[in-house]
Amino acid sequence: MKIYINGAFFEEQDAKISVFDHGLLYGDGVFEGIRFYSGRVFKLEEHLERLYDSAKAILLTIPVDLEQMRAATLESIRQNNLRDGYIRLVVTRGKGSLGLSPENCAPAVIIIADSIRLYPREFYEQGLVVATCSTRRPSPAALSPAVKSLNYLNNVMAKIEAQNAGAAEGLMLNEQGFVAECTGDNIFIIRKGKIFTPPVSAGALKGITRAVIFDLAAELGLPIGEADLTRYDIYTADELFLTGTAAEVVPAVKLDRRTIGDGKPGPWTRRLMDRFHELTQSEGTPIYP
Ligand code: PXG
User: Going by CA atoms, what residue is nearest to atom 7 of ligand 1?
Assistant: First the structure.
Protein backbone atom coordinates (compact mmCIF):
# COMPACT_ATOMS: atom_id res chain seq x y z
CA MET A 1 0.00 0.00 0.00
CA LYS A 2 1.29 3.47 -0.92
CA ILE A 3 0.43 6.28 1.44
CA TYR A 4 0.65 10.00 0.72
CA ILE A 5 2.28 12.23 3.34
CA ASN A 6 2.97 15.88 2.53
CA GLY A 7 3.49 15.47 -1.19
CA ALA A 8 5.34 12.13 -1.30
CA PHE A 9 4.26 8.48 -1.39
CA PHE A 10 5.56 5.95 1.14
CA GLU A 11 5.17 2.23 1.66
CA GLU A 12 3.00 1.52 4.68
CA GLN A 13 5.94 0.58 6.94
CA ASP A 14 7.67 3.86 6.07
CA ALA A 15 4.55 6.04 6.30
CA LYS A 16 5.24 7.70 9.64
CA ILE A 17 4.48 10.93 11.39
CA SER A 18 6.08 12.50 14.44
CA VAL A 19 5.12 11.59 18.01
CA PHE A 20 4.96 15.38 18.47
CA ASP A 21 2.14 15.66 15.91
CA HIS A 22 -0.78 17.46 17.57
CA GLY A 23 -3.17 15.15 15.73
CA LEU A 24 -1.84 12.39 17.99
CA LEU A 25 -1.26 14.48 21.11
CA TYR A 26 -4.59 16.37 21.09
CA GLY A 27 -6.79 15.01 18.33
CA ASP A 28 -6.12 18.37 16.71
CA GLY A 29 -6.99 18.01 13.05
CA VAL A 30 -9.73 17.16 10.59
CA PHE A 31 -10.54 14.27 8.28
CA GLU A 32 -12.77 12.85 5.58
CA GLY A 33 -13.77 9.32 4.62
CA ILE A 34 -14.60 9.00 0.92
CA ARG A 35 -15.75 6.03 -1.18
CA PHE A 36 -14.93 5.22 -4.77
CA TYR A 37 -16.90 2.82 -6.91
CA SER A 38 -16.03 1.27 -10.28
CA GLY A 39 -13.21 3.73 -10.95
CA ARG A 40 -15.08 6.89 -9.88
CA VAL A 41 -14.91 8.85 -6.64
CA PHE A 42 -18.38 9.45 -5.21
CA LYS A 43 -19.16 13.03 -4.11
CA LEU A 44 -15.50 14.05 -4.15
CA GLU A 45 -16.21 17.80 -4.36
CA GLU A 46 -18.63 17.66 -1.42
CA HIS A 47 -16.05 15.85 0.73
CA LEU A 48 -13.27 18.27 -0.24
CA GLU A 49 -15.50 21.23 0.54
CA ARG A 50 -16.37 19.81 3.96
CA LEU A 51 -12.68 19.12 4.69
CA TYR A 52 -11.70 22.73 3.94
CA ASP A 53 -14.71 24.05 5.88
CA SER A 54 -13.82 21.88 8.91
CA ALA A 55 -10.22 23.13 8.75
CA LYS A 56 -11.31 26.74 8.44
CA ALA A 57 -13.58 26.39 11.46
CA ILE A 58 -10.67 25.21 13.63
CA LEU A 59 -8.21 27.80 12.24
CA LEU A 60 -6.16 25.12 10.52
CA THR A 61 -4.54 26.18 7.26
CA ILE A 62 -4.27 23.20 4.93
CA PRO A 63 -0.84 23.51 3.26
CA VAL A 64 -2.17 22.56 -0.21
CA ASP A 65 -5.05 24.14 -2.09
CA LEU A 66 -8.25 22.31 -2.98
CA GLU A 67 -7.10 21.56 -6.52
CA GLN A 68 -3.84 20.01 -5.27
CA MET A 69 -5.78 18.01 -2.67
CA ARG A 70 -8.13 16.69 -5.38
CA ALA A 71 -5.14 15.71 -7.56
CA ALA A 72 -3.34 14.03 -4.63
CA THR A 73 -6.48 12.11 -3.70
CA LEU A 74 -6.92 10.73 -7.21
CA GLU A 75 -3.20 9.97 -7.47
CA SER A 76 -3.31 8.04 -4.17
CA ILE A 77 -5.94 5.71 -5.63
CA ARG A 78 -3.97 5.30 -8.88
CA GLN A 79 -0.75 4.55 -6.97
CA ASN A 80 -2.57 1.63 -5.35
CA ASN A 81 -4.28 0.47 -8.54
CA LEU A 82 -7.71 0.45 -6.95
CA ARG A 83 -11.14 0.81 -8.58
CA ASP A 84 -13.36 0.26 -5.52
CA GLY A 85 -12.47 1.32 -2.01
CA TYR A 86 -12.23 3.91 0.68
CA ILE A 87 -10.00 6.97 1.03
CA ARG A 88 -9.12 8.63 4.30
CA LEU A 89 -7.94 12.23 4.06
CA VAL A 90 -6.36 13.45 7.28
CA VAL A 91 -5.01 16.91 7.98
CA THR A 92 -3.35 17.23 11.36
CA ARG A 93 -2.14 20.38 13.08
CA GLY A 94 1.25 18.79 12.59
CA LYS A 95 4.47 18.51 14.54
CA GLY A 96 4.85 21.06 17.31
CA SER A 97 5.98 21.27 20.90
CA LEU A 98 4.35 19.66 23.94
CA GLY A 99 1.63 22.08 24.87
CA LEU A 100 -1.78 22.90 23.43
CA SER A 101 -0.75 25.95 21.46
CA PRO A 102 -0.56 25.21 17.74
CA GLU A 103 1.64 28.23 17.06
CA ASN A 104 4.76 26.31 15.99
CA CYS A 105 2.98 23.46 14.25
CA ALA A 106 3.45 22.60 10.57
CA PRO A 107 0.20 20.95 9.35
CA ALA A 108 0.49 17.50 7.79
CA VAL A 109 -1.62 16.03 4.99
CA ILE A 110 -2.07 12.25 4.93
CA ILE A 111 -4.02 10.29 2.31
CA ILE A 112 -4.71 6.59 2.71
CA ALA A 113 -6.41 4.76 -0.16
CA ASP A 114 -7.51 1.28 0.79
CA SER A 115 -10.02 -1.40 -0.03
CA ILE A 116 -13.02 -1.31 2.27
CA ARG A 117 -14.22 -3.78 4.86
CA LEU A 118 -17.97 -3.77 4.34
CA TYR A 119 -20.75 -4.39 6.85
CA PRO A 120 -22.01 -7.99 6.63
CA ARG A 121 -24.64 -8.54 3.93
CA GLU A 122 -27.29 -9.57 6.49
CA PHE A 123 -27.22 -6.04 7.94
CA TYR A 124 -28.67 -4.81 4.65
CA GLU A 125 -31.09 -7.69 4.21
CA GLN A 126 -32.35 -8.01 7.77
CA GLY A 127 -31.59 -4.60 9.27
CA LEU A 128 -29.48 -3.47 12.20
CA VAL A 129 -30.16 -3.55 15.90
CA VAL A 130 -29.52 -0.16 17.53
CA ALA A 131 -29.18 0.76 21.21
CA THR A 132 -29.33 4.21 22.79
CA CYS A 133 -26.02 5.20 24.40
CA SER A 134 -25.76 7.14 27.62
CA THR A 135 -22.80 9.00 26.07
CA ARG A 136 -24.21 12.26 24.70
CA ARG A 137 -23.10 14.30 21.70
CA PRO A 138 -21.05 17.26 22.90
CA SER A 139 -22.89 20.58 22.86
CA PRO A 140 -22.39 22.73 19.73
CA ALA A 141 -21.07 25.31 22.18
CA ALA A 142 -18.16 22.94 22.92
CA LEU A 143 -17.36 22.03 19.32
CA SER A 144 -19.61 22.38 16.30
CA PRO A 145 -20.89 18.96 15.21
CA ALA A 146 -20.36 20.19 11.65
CA VAL A 147 -16.58 19.99 12.16
CA LYS A 148 -15.32 16.53 11.21
CA SER A 149 -12.43 16.65 13.63
CA LEU A 150 -9.94 14.01 14.76
CA ASN A 151 -11.57 14.16 18.18
CA TYR A 152 -13.76 11.05 18.04
CA LEU A 153 -13.37 9.82 21.61
CA ASN A 154 -16.98 10.63 22.32
CA ASN A 155 -18.10 8.50 19.35
CA VAL A 156 -15.67 5.72 20.27
CA MET A 157 -17.12 5.56 23.81
CA ALA A 158 -20.63 5.40 22.37
CA LYS A 159 -19.60 2.65 19.94
CA ILE A 160 -18.18 0.57 22.80
CA GLU A 161 -21.41 1.08 24.74
CA ALA A 162 -23.48 -0.10 21.77
CA GLN A 163 -21.28 -3.16 21.30
CA ASN A 164 -21.51 -3.98 25.01
CA ALA A 165 -25.28 -3.83 24.65
CA GLY A 166 -25.14 -6.31 21.77
CA ALA A 167 -26.14 -3.70 19.18
CA ALA A 168 -24.43 -2.98 15.86
CA GLU A 169 -24.89 0.76 16.21
CA GLY A 170 -25.41 3.26 19.01
CA LEU A 171 -27.95 6.07 19.01
CA MET A 172 -26.55 9.31 20.41
CA LEU A 173 -28.73 12.00 21.96
CA ASN A 174 -27.79 15.62 22.48
CA GLU A 175 -27.69 17.35 25.85
CA GLN A 176 -31.42 18.15 25.62
CA GLY A 177 -32.23 14.49 25.02
CA PHE A 178 -33.16 14.89 21.35
CA VAL A 179 -31.80 12.46 18.80
CA ALA A 180 -28.54 13.63 17.20
CA GLU A 181 -27.16 10.74 15.12
CA CYS A 182 -25.44 7.38 15.46
CA THR A 183 -21.75 6.92 16.26
CA GLY A 184 -20.63 7.24 12.63
CA ASP A 185 -23.87 7.59 10.69
CA ASN A 186 -26.81 9.96 10.32
CA ILE A 187 -30.28 8.71 11.21
CA PHE A 188 -33.63 8.93 9.40
CA ILE A 189 -37.18 7.82 10.21
CA ILE A 190 -40.14 7.43 7.92
CA ARG A 191 -43.63 7.88 9.34
CA LYS A 192 -46.87 8.08 7.39
CA GLY A 193 -45.06 8.63 4.10
CA LYS A 194 -42.71 11.37 5.32
CA ILE A 195 -38.98 11.27 6.12
CA PHE A 196 -37.46 13.09 9.07
CA THR A 197 -33.87 13.52 10.20
CA PRO A 198 -32.40 15.65 13.00
CA PRO A 199 -31.04 19.10 12.06
CA VAL A 200 -27.35 19.87 12.36
CA SER A 201 -28.27 22.08 15.32
CA ALA A 202 -29.36 18.92 17.18
CA GLY A 203 -25.80 17.54 16.93
CA ALA A 204 -25.83 15.77 13.57
CA LEU A 205 -22.92 15.88 11.16
CA LYS A 206 -23.82 17.43 7.79
CA GLY A 207 -23.44 14.02 6.20
CA ILE A 208 -22.70 13.75 2.50
CA THR A 209 -24.83 10.60 2.29
CA ARG A 210 -27.53 12.44 4.28
CA ALA A 211 -27.58 15.13 1.55
CA VAL A 212 -27.97 12.43 -1.12
CA ILE A 213 -31.07 11.17 0.73
CA PHE A 214 -32.61 14.66 0.45
CA ASP A 215 -32.00 14.53 -3.33
CA LEU A 216 -33.39 11.02 -3.68
CA ALA A 217 -36.46 11.79 -1.56
CA ALA A 218 -37.25 14.74 -3.85
CA GLU A 219 -36.77 12.50 -6.88
CA LEU A 220 -39.11 9.82 -5.45
CA GLY A 221 -41.72 12.38 -4.38
CA LEU A 222 -41.24 11.55 -0.73
CA PRO A 223 -41.64 14.60 1.55
CA ILE A 224 -38.55 15.14 3.70
CA GLY A 225 -37.63 17.53 6.47
CA GLU A 226 -35.44 18.18 9.48
CA ALA A 227 -37.04 17.83 12.91
CA ASP A 228 -36.05 17.47 16.54
CA LEU A 229 -36.77 13.81 17.24
CA THR A 230 -37.11 11.91 20.49
CA ARG A 231 -36.58 8.21 21.07
CA TYR A 232 -40.39 7.88 21.13
CA ASP A 233 -40.50 9.13 17.52
CA ILE A 234 -38.09 6.37 16.54
CA TYR A 235 -39.83 3.61 18.50
CA THR A 236 -43.11 4.47 16.77
CA ALA A 237 -41.72 5.07 13.26
CA ASP A 238 -42.73 2.93 10.28
CA GLU A 239 -39.15 2.69 8.99
CA LEU A 240 -35.69 3.52 10.28
CA PHE A 241 -32.41 3.73 8.41
CA LEU A 242 -28.89 5.09 8.83
CA THR A 243 -26.59 6.73 6.30
CA GLY A 244 -22.83 7.16 6.06
CA THR A 245 -20.02 6.91 3.57
CA ALA A 246 -18.95 3.52 4.91
CA ALA A 247 -22.43 2.12 5.69
CA GLU A 248 -24.16 3.73 2.66
CA VAL A 249 -27.92 3.39 3.36
CA VAL A 250 -28.54 0.68 5.95
CA PRO A 251 -31.92 -0.31 7.41
CA ALA A 252 -32.39 -0.60 11.19
CA VAL A 253 -35.19 -2.69 12.68
CA LYS A 254 -34.80 -2.40 16.44
CA LEU A 255 -34.03 0.33 18.91
CA ASP A 256 -33.72 -0.48 22.63
CA ARG A 257 -35.60 -3.76 22.07
CA ARG A 258 -38.56 -2.02 20.43
CA THR A 259 -39.29 -3.44 16.98
CA ILE A 260 -39.55 -0.69 14.36
CA GLY A 261 -42.52 -1.14 12.00
CA ASP A 262 -42.91 -4.81 11.14
CA GLY A 263 -39.29 -5.59 12.02
CA LYS A 264 -38.13 -5.81 8.41
CA PRO A 265 -36.41 -3.19 6.24
CA GLY A 266 -39.26 -1.02 4.95
CA PRO A 267 -40.32 -0.45 1.33
CA TRP A 268 -39.16 3.19 1.17
CA THR A 269 -35.84 2.27 2.74
CA ARG A 270 -35.37 -0.42 0.11
CA ARG A 271 -36.13 2.01 -2.72
CA LEU A 272 -33.67 4.53 -1.30
CA MET A 273 -31.01 1.81 -0.92
CA ASP A 274 -31.55 0.74 -4.55
CA ARG A 275 -31.41 4.30 -5.91
CA PHE A 276 -28.35 5.07 -3.79
CA HIS A 277 -26.61 2.01 -5.16
CA GLU A 278 -27.48 3.05 -8.74
CA LEU A 279 -26.07 6.53 -8.13
CA THR A 280 -22.77 5.19 -6.81
CA GLN A 281 -22.43 3.13 -10.00
CA SER A 282 -23.35 5.92 -12.39
CA GLU A 283 -21.73 9.13 -11.17
CA GLY A 284 -18.50 10.38 -9.64
CA THR A 285 -15.11 11.82 -10.55
CA PRO A 286 -13.19 9.48 -12.89
CA ILE A 287 -9.92 8.22 -11.39
CA TYR A 288 -8.31 6.81 -14.54
CA PRO A 289 -8.18 8.71 -17.84
N1 PXG B 1 -21.96 11.23 11.63
C2 PXG B 1 -20.69 11.09 12.05
C3 PXG B 1 -20.34 11.42 13.45
C4 PXG B 1 -19.71 10.64 11.14
O5 PXG B 1 -18.44 10.51 11.55
C6 PXG B 1 -21.43 10.46 9.44
C7 PXG B 1 -22.33 10.93 10.37
C8 PXG B 1 -21.88 10.19 8.05
O9 PXG B 1 -21.42 11.22 7.16
P10 PXG B 1 -21.09 10.95 5.64
O11 PXG B 1 -20.61 12.25 5.13
O12 PXG B 1 -20.04 9.89 5.60
O13 PXG B 1 -22.36 10.51 4.97
C14 PXG B 1 -20.08 10.32 9.83
C15 PXG B 1 -19.02 9.85 8.88
C16 PXG B 1 -16.66 4.38 10.59
C17 PXG B 1 -16.54 5.85 10.36
O18 PXG B 1 -15.63 3.75 10.82
C19 PXG B 1 -17.60 6.57 9.88
C20 PXG B 1 -17.49 7.94 9.67
C21 PXG B 1 -16.32 8.54 9.94
C22 PXG B 1 -15.27 7.82 10.45
C23 PXG B 1 -15.35 6.47 10.64
O24 PXG B 1 -17.78 3.88 10.54
N25 PXG B 1 -18.62 8.55 9.18
Answer: 185
Cβ(183)–Cβ(207) below 8 Å: no
Q: For the residues 210-225, what does the mean pLDDT come to?
A: 98
Closest by CA position to 235, among listed 171, 157, 143: 171
Is the shortest distance between the CB of 243 and ligand 1 below 6 Å?
Answer: yes
Q: For ligand 1, what atom is nearest to the CA of residue 245?
A: 12
Helix/strand/coil (H, E, C) string of 23-67? HHHHCCEEEEEEEEECCEECCHHHHHHHHHHHHHHCCCCCCCCHH
pLDDT of 97 > 90? The answer is yes
pLDDT band at 119; cut points 50, 70, 90: confident
Would you place residue 265 in the very low, low, confident or very high pLDDT band (cuts 50, 70, 90)? Answer: very high
Q: What is the mean pLDDT of residues 272-282?
A: 98
Atom from ligand 1 closest to the CA of residue 247: 24
Domains of the chain: 2-114 (3.30.470.10), 121-281 (3.20.10.10)
Beta-carbon count within 10 A of 126 CB = 14
Decide if 56 is catalytic: no
Among 43, 148, 159, 254, the active-site one is 148
